[in-house]
Write a structure and sequence with these properties.
Blueprint: H1 7-10, E1 12-15, H2 19-39, H3 46-67, E2 70-81, E3 84-89, E4 97-98, E5 101-102, H4 107-116, E6 122-127, E7 131-133, H5 146-157, E8 164-169, H6 176-185, E9 202-206, E10 217-222, E11 226-228, E12 233-240, E13 246-253, E14 256-264, E15 270-277, E16 283-290, E17 304-312, E18 316-322, H7 327-337, E19 342-347, H8 353-357, H9 372-378, E20 385-389, H10 400-412, E21 416-420, E22 442-443, E23 451-452, E24 459-460, H11 462-466, H12 476-485, E25 492-493, E26 497-498, E27 503-512, E28 518-525, E29 531-535, H13 541-549, H14 555-568, E30 577-581, E31 585-587, E32 592-598, E33 610-616, E34 622-628, E35 634-639, E36 645-652, E37 661-668, H15 681-691, E38 696-699, E39 714-724, H16 729-748
Parallel strand pairs: 3-6, 3-8, 8-9, 9-38, 11-17, 18-19, 18-20, 20-21, 21-29, 31-37
Antiparallel strand pairs: 1-2, 2-39, 4-5, 6-7, 10-12, 12-15, 13-14, 13-16, 16-17, 22-26, 23-25, 24-27, 27-28, 28-29, 30-32, 32-35, 33-34, 33-36, 36-37
Helix pairs in contact: 2-3, 3-16, 13-14
């Protein structure tokens, strides 16, 4: 603010004594007046008596005024040049290295030149997405906003005039001002009104040199968010680099190279590379697109782009193998064929090895040739679910244990296996002692009868009431009553009882196994990363037939098998021990929370379960995970990734042997501010052009740094002159003279 009020106009008399002193003065005045009036009634010359009273009162009045602290305030001020404000861009792009070195390295010399150009004070501020006093501690801001910084400066100065405003920046701006100017360049119109009010002339100093920057960057990788199992999907990478240059582009998955392509940058400095990826497993997987880092690369961190993709099932591929045609096989096959989400391969009228060796021609027999070697050796990985329905492997598989070992390993690696009862299944199918037995939820090798043919109605267990598989109705009470009302089954295959870690969901109402417990009718387990189901009856079709005959439809049958397949081919996030990240893709410096869930075989939360595991960073270094689940069966582990790339997590629990939870998430060092690193000095010239030569100046790289200043801009430094009137020597003189006069007059009038 320039100018100010004159001293005469603003001069004032003020009283500086505290209120308590003024109160005492008032009381004293009353006492003095009372005593003076009392003395005025004494004898003698009345003129002398009143002269004495008046003199005493005048002396007291002078003393009282002096004690009240009168002061004469004479305001004023002095003028000095208004401050020059310097705004330094503190965003990450200012740390980019070009041919002359880091851009920010030129800031100190620029500040020296600016200080030398003015006699007034220089105030320095940092701006990125906010404005703050002082130079940047580090050039790592996540986005610069020049328009926002100028608006914040206007608020801070509150109308005060400035000698000038100098901006040191590379022109890479993330705010609305640059977007508006780009829109105007594309055909719109914009004027100086897009700028906030400026308190002084503006000087825009360009930092960095766009022609000296070499950078190859992967700007984005488009994946669509998720992919389908066994279905090719496109993974498209968009790159930026020097026009005309060709660079190799690599695609890897969790450290393993999967594909390589090349990209040639066009005249606009962009290129695009497309990969075809066919996932073979369901779950979360980390892919990374990268290009080699060449020596002059300005930002090596943007040469890689990791991304986590979730793979889901589009269709469930099912292999159904039945030893002979039956109602149970017919109903289940029809159920699977009518489900559009199921891709079914079914074999149920099979030639045995003796049939093949008998020499019959294909047109002489109606039995189907069973390609068991191709199915259980070459094609097994292509299936999500294998159903062995009343199937005795012996007559068909001349390499029985070897091929059944394939089935067991496939299940443990994440497959889903179902064994359905009948006179060719479980112990009646000679599965005891085979590799398949180790992944079944029941124990085989009974010592007595291998079947009980008496009809019965299965009983829902507590585990079954909690598990989603036997949930025919949402209400627990109604669900239990529905199971009690279903028709009786024809009998069951006997077993030695449930396997360790398995959950029994349905039992026989009275028949007990060798372990003393009621014999399992429906049991489930999670061997390794897979799942298995044992249904020790071959008459579940009766649930459909009997309900349909009573006019209630076949909902119990359909709901049971739908639940069964939904659970069997469930997502990896639906197992007994699961770990998942709060976010699949995070930026370095941000926190990600790992959530570990523990459940029993019946899918009920397990509290106070010991969790052990490790986090593996992209370089292969490990960090332990230890803890216990809470009452909700969860353990939350906060983590702040410190390196870019794919981070893998693996957890186990001593209380859940064989169960493993695994996941992956991606950390990136990419900052939005570094997605564009070529300087935009044209933006700074546009801003200067909006204001005109008298109000703005653009200074390019290497030009003499002479800021545009307003010499008339001054600020007034307030000053105040105070004269204490109560301490003036004349006060004491007046009190003495008036007091003496009063004493003399009183004595002459005959008083004391």
């Amino acid at each position: 603010m320039s100018g100010g009020s004159s001293a005469a106009d603003a001069a004032a008399l003020v009283w500086t004594a505290p209120p308590a002193v003024l109160a005492v003065i008032g009381v004293g005045t009353l006492a003095v007046v009372a005593l003076a009036l009392r003395g005025s009634s004494d004898g003698g010359d009345p003129r002398l008596r009143w002269l004495g009273v008046g003199a005493h009162l005048a002396a007291w009045a002078v003393l009282a005024v002096a004690l009240a602290g009168p002061a004469w305030i004479q305001p004023g001020g002095r003028e000095e040049p208004a401050p020059l404000v310097v705004l330094v861009d503190g965003s990450a792009s200012m740390g980019v290295t070009d041919a002359a070195g880091p851009r920010a390295a030129t800031v100190p010399a620029a500040l020296d030149a600016i200080r030398a150009s003015t006699d007034g004070p220089v105030e320095v501020f940092t701006f990125d997405d906010e404005l703050r006093p002082g130079l940047p501690a580090r050039y790592d801001g996540r986005g610069s906003d020049l328009g926002g910084a100028l608006a914040a400066l206007a608020d801070r100065t509150l109308g005060q005039r400035l000698s000038g405003v100098v901006v040191l920046t590379d022109g890479i701006d993330r705010g609305a001002l640059r977007r508006d100017l780009r829109a105007a360049a594309a055909g719109g119109s914009v004027g100086a009104e897009v700028l906030p009010p400026l308190a002084g002339p503006l000087t825009l100093v360009a930092i960095g040199d766009a022609d000296d920057v070499f950078d190859v960057a992967i700007e984005d990788v488009a994946t669509g968010g998720y992919a389908f199992l066994r279905a090719a999907f496109p993974l498209t990478a968009r790159l930026r680099g020097p026009p005309g240059r060709t660079v190799p582009v690599l695609l890897s998955r969790e450290g393993r190279r999967e594909a390589e392509a090349s990209a040639t940058f066009g005249e606009d400095g962009t290129a695009e590379v497309r990969f075809e990826v066919t996932p073979r497993k369901v779950g979360r997987f980390a892919w990374e697109v990268s290009t080699p880092v060449e020596a002059p690369d300005a930002v090596p961190a943007n040469n890689t782009f990791p991304v986590v993709l979730r793979v889901v099932r589009d269709r469930t591929r099912v292999l159904q193998v039945a030893g002979a045609p039956s109602n149970d096989q017919k109903f289940l096959r029809l159920f699977l064929k009518e489900d559009p989400s199921v891709d079914l391969v079914s074999f149920f009228i099979l030639r045995t090895d003796p049939d093949l060796r008998a020499g019959w021609d294909n047109d002489e027999v109606s039995l189907i040739e069973f390609p068991y070697e191709r199915l259980f050796e070459d094609d097994l990985e292509s299936f999500d679910l294998v159903i062995l329905q009343n199937f005795n492997h012996g007559p068909y598989l001349d390499r029985s244990n070897e091929l059944l070992e394939n089935v067991a390993r496939w299940t443990e690696a994440g497959g889903a296996l179902v064994m359905v009862g009948g006179d060719r299944s479980f112990d009646l199918g000679d599965y005891q002692g085979t590799p398949v037995e180790r992944v079944l939820p029941v124990r085989l090798g009974v010592g007595g009868p291998r079947a009980d043919e008496a009809p019965f109605v299965p009983v829902l267990t507590p585990d079954g009431a909690a598990h989603p598989l036997p949930r025919l109705l949402d209400d627990a009470g109604e669900n239990a009553r529905r199971w009690e009302g279903l028709p009786a089954l024809d009998g069951l295959n006997l077993t030695r009882g449930a396997a360790r870690g398995a959950a029994v969901l349905l039992t026989h109402p009275g028949r007990r196994c060798e372990d003393g417990n009621l014999c399992p009718v429906l049991a489930v387990a999670e061997p390794g990363q897979g799942r298995s189901l044992a249904l020790t009856v071959d008459a579940s079709w009766r649930w459909s037939f009997s309900e349909a005959a009573s006019g209630r439809g076949n909902q119990a049958y359909l709901r049971f098998w739908k639940n069964a397949f939904r659970w069997l081919v469930a997502d990896p996030d639906d197992r007994q021990i699961v770990v998942r990240p709060g976010r699949d893709n995070v930026v370095l410096g941000d926190e990600v929370v790992l959530i570990v869930e523990a459940r029993d075989a019946g899918h009920r939360p397990l509290a106070d379960v010991v969790v052990e595991g490790e986090v593996v960073d992209p370089a292969g270094n490990t960090a332990p995970i230890n803890g216990r689940t809470g009452a909700d069966g969860e353990l939350k582990v906060p983590l702040q990734p410190g390196a870019p790339g794919a981070w893998r997590v693996r957890v186990t629990s001593p209380g859940l042997p064989g169960q493993v939870g695994e996941t992956v998430f991606a950390a990136t060092a990419r900052e939005p501010e570094l997605s564009e690193i070529r300087t935009d000095h044209a933006f700074l010239e546009q801003v200067a052009g909006l204001l005109g030569e008298e109000r703005a100046r653009y200074i390019g790289p290497g030009a003499s740094l002479r800021p545009l200043l307003d010499p008339a801009a001054v600020r007034v430094i307030p000053e105040r002159h105070q004269e204490d009137l109560g301490s003036h020597p004349g006060v004491a003189l007046a009190v003495g003279l008036l007091g003496g006069l009063g004493f003399w007059a009183r004595r002459r009038a005959g008083g004391r």
